[in-house]
Amino acid sequence: MAQTKMKRAILYNENIKSILEILSENPEGISGQAISEKLKVSRSAISKIVKNLEKLGYKFEVSKKKYKLIEKPDVPFPWEIGEEGKNVIFFKEVDSTQEKAKELAIKGKISHGTWVIAEKQKSGRGRMGRIWESPQGNFYGSVFLKPDLPLKETVKISLIGGLAVLRTVKSYEITKSIKIKWPNDIFVISENSAKKLAGVLAESFGESEKIDFTICGIGVNINNSPLDIAICLKELVGEKHNLLTDFTKRFISIFKQTYEEFLKGKWLELKTEIEINMWRGKVKVMQGEKEFTGTCVGINPDGSMVIQKQDGGYENIFYGDTIIVTSQEKSE
Known about the structure:
CATH class of the largest domain: Alpha Beta
Number of domains: 3
Number of helices: 8
CATH superfamily of the largest domain: Bira Bifunctional Protein, Domain 2
Shape: elongated
CATH topology of the largest domain: BirA Bifunctional Protein, domain 2
Order of helices and strands: HHHEEEHEEHEEEEHHHEEEEEE
């Protein structure tokens, strides 16, 4: 299996991708000799790859003459994500994709636009020191970026990550109301509730107020929602074959496109799209011991949130946390 010195890392492998494509194109099965001739690799190499794939959860029917692909696991291995999979470092389990990406960045073992994705996290992190529950079946990924931004504008990366999630979710033609909650969450809104679908955690590192690099971590509930205040994509789209793999493939591509728009100077256009799809109702703002309720009316060009307070005045919010206030309940 394609691995590096990074323990347990699984990387993109062209031969694996090609073998799986050939097997998918031949649902009745195909001989090892035919695969060997198509790929110009030995039959023993094909046999070894198939055995390794079986260990990863793929199911085959293997006879003396044919290989037949029976089932693929719903796991976003790099070769299942298409060309963008070349920029993915996959782990079966990590403490946190955010910490793993940061570790690789400090060691110089990761390049701009590379994702660290895990099937499970033991110690997933959200904002404000919260734990991000990370059972198998959901999306957990962190991308290494080098934006040309001052440290104080890291919130823009959070908002771009949220917009990319929203664009991806909307690609499933969902009729429910999906909203970005400043600065980092995606919620499904109904009349009396707000349920969390995804969260974004952008952390920047640098000196003299200039970003050296940013790790943008994103968690999306795909097949299960671990908390009562959460919802998963499966609840919105119904049963769909290999939903996690399908979402990951769409999302990695859409995130890249969205971030490239940002790099090309289209922040104001992105800001407008974010505001159109933003929760612009009542929110509770928490900044340490300070708490107040107001109405989110949009964001400033620097990414800070504009709140209209209960006394009618306005305040720009540069940091802190917000809770959506619905008509009957509060949801984080």
